[in-house]
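Progress narrative, Year 2. Work on Polyketide cyclase from Parasitella parasitica advanced from sequence curation to structure prediction during this period.
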Amino acid sequence: MATQSAIHWPEKYTPGFTDNFVSNEIIVKGLSVNDIWPYLANTAHWTKYYKNASDITFPRGGGPELAADLDFSFSTFGFPPLAAKVVEFVAPAKGQAARLSWTAKQDRSPEEKLDVLHAWLLEDLDGGRVRILTQESQIGKPAADLAKANPNPMLNGHQDWLNGLREIALKNKL
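Result:
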């Protein structure tokens, strides 16, 4: 049995020690990491398949393709634009998982302050399958409030993102 890869967590964002944590995963037959990656790593595609992302900008230039240490901002889950920074960017390569993560912050009043790490892991599995995992660890009162919500908007919103990735990759597979 093969061991599956895991998200790399900076200590500050370790799940279980933050105010909210969500994890979503799908495994899809007939797709590979290379089929999925372009739709995740290039923000120009996000609004085509994920209705919960908007106002994507690159305040210091670059983009729409994400890259290590790239600053960007975007709106999601009704929050004003969050200042984001790519902290891990490992493009697809044979024999290793592709990884993408970013921090996103809202520096406002203590009641509105939000600090998250959103991580992605894409991994080819045997039998022509791909594993798509996304997890987010959140700090701040808005995160604590989201953790109590039922249904959980973060869990459902991230599932929509996974499903959208799957559908756009299947639709455009060469």
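The longest strand covers residues 114-125. The CA atoms of residues 84 and 104 lie 4 Å apart.
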